[in-house]
Every structure is written in structure tokens, then in C-alpha cells.
Write a structure and sequence with these properties.
There is one protein chain. This protein has 181 residues and is of the alpha/beta class. It has a single domain, classed as Rossmann fold (3-Layer(aba) Sandwich), CATH 3.40.50.300. 33% of the residues lie in helices and 23% in strands. Bound molecules: guanosine-5'-triphosphate and magnesium ion. Magnesium ion (MG) binds next to α1.
Length: 181
């Protein structure tokens, strides 16, 4: 019998970093909404997809796509209260891209009352400005932040769909590690 484990995952990050585009590209690849133009998330949406780890568990993942707009922060906290994992998404090309990541991590902790959930830090907009020294520096800082917090780091680009499955595979790896010790 296939061992399917259900996991709720909060997808957090500032407005317009590409949370909805990333989730859509992974869960509903034929959909174009969020891929070509911006539709601000106001009502939280849940999308799901199975992720299978070879020779291990299969995860039925439910992704909580929530608004990045600060106005919605209390709603977001209530909505993600039962989540057991998270993707923290930022725009690696944006000068302030990393400034709020630790605040998002605190929001997750306050909402779930859990200190060390499996988390993947997602550098979206990767491969767009790879020659830019500031972007290179930001990517290095992201790697330090991930190491310091025990998170995995994924690089992807939701607009071009390059490596959009990587954050989800790394999340499944982290879940495996937390389950299998
Ligand atoms: N250039 C580029 N654009 C992207 C990328 N990912 C998403 N976008 C675009 O950026 C805009 C915002 O993306 P969304 O996915 O709606 O952003 P969001 O994080 O869900 O924003 P909120 O719902 O307001 O919190 C859309 O027009 C996307 O098509 C990316 O990797 N590179
Ligand atoms: Mg959105």
C-alpha cells in the first residue's frame, strides 16, 4: 500500500514576490493566471499536489496561498495556524528582497506556535540578474540566512517556470528528514 502523508504548507512572502505564480506553475501548469499579469491575492486559496520521494513517502501537499499585503497579516496568521511546513518566498532581484524574511518566519512561529517546522527559503526571480553584484550578494546572504536557521534554499523563476519544482522537492526532503529523524 502506498504511504501518503498529508501536509499543509504555508506559502509566505511580500506582495508581488511571485507566491501565486510559483504555486500555479507547480500545481496547475496549464493555467496562465498569475503567469502573465499581476492579480493580487486577497482571499487565501488552497491548491494541492502529490509529491513523491523515490523509495520513500508520498506527500499530499496543500499549499496555502495567502496575501503578502501587510493589511492582511492577522487574517494570514489565523489561516495558517495548522500548517506543518512553509515556503518563504522572496525576490532575489529586489534590493529589499530579504529584509522581511525573518519577520515572515516569526509570523509562522506566532501563528503555528511551532519553532522548527520544515522550511524552504525560495529565491524567486533567479536567473534574471545573475551578473548583478547586488543580486549575487543577496543570494549569498540568503544562503547564510538559510544555514543559520536550518532551512533549505531553492532558486527558481516562476515567470519562466525554470526549476519551479525545486522548492517543492526540497520541502519533501525536509519533511522526510523530520519524519525519519
Ligand atoms: N520577472 C519575474 N516575474 C515574476 C516571477 N514570478 C512571478 N512574477 C510576476 O510577478 C507578478 C506578481 O506575482 P504573484 O505570484 O501574483 O505575486 P504574489 O507574491 O502572489 O503577490 P500577492 O498575492 O500580492 O502577495 C506577476 O505578474 C507574476 O507573473 C519571476 O520569477 N520573475
Ligand atoms: Mg498572490
Amino acid at each position: 500500500m502506498v504511504d501518503v502523508i498529508t501536509v499543509d504548507c504555508a506559502v509566505l512572502g511580500d506582495q508581488r514576490v511571485g507566491k501565486s505564480a510559483l504555486i500555479t506553475a507547480f500545481c496547475n501548469p496549464k493555467e496562465t493566471e498569475h503567469m502573465t499579469s499581476y492579480h493580487m491575492t486577497t482571499d487565501p486559496v488552497i491548491r494541492n499536489k502529490q509529491v513523491r520521494v523515490p523509495d520513500s513517502h508520498t506527500y499530499e501537499m496543500f499549499f496555502f496561498d495567502v496575501p503578502g499585503l501587510p493589511l492582511y497579516r492577522d487574517l494570514v496568521k489565523r489561516y495558517i495556524a495548522e500548517c506543518q511546513s512553509a515556503l518563504l518566498v522572496f525576490d532575489v532581484t529586489r534590493p529589499d528582497g530579504l529584509d522581511t524574511i525573518e519577520a515572515w518566519s516569526e509570523t509562522l512561529t506566532e501563528a503555528t506556535l511551532q519553532q522548527s517546522l520544515p522550511i524552504v527559503l525560495v529565491a524567486n526571480h533567479s536567473f534574471e540578474a545573475d551578473d548583478d553584484p547586488d543580486t549575487i550578494h543577496r543570494a549569498a546572504r540568503a544562503s547564510e540566512i538559510a544555514d543559520r536557521n536550518g532551512w533549505k534554499l531553492a532558486r527558481c523563476n516562476a515567470a519562466t517556470r525554470r526549476d519551479v519544482d525545486v522548492p517543492f522537492m526540497l520541502l519533501a526532503d525536509s519533511l522526510n528528514m523530520s519524519l525519519d529523524g
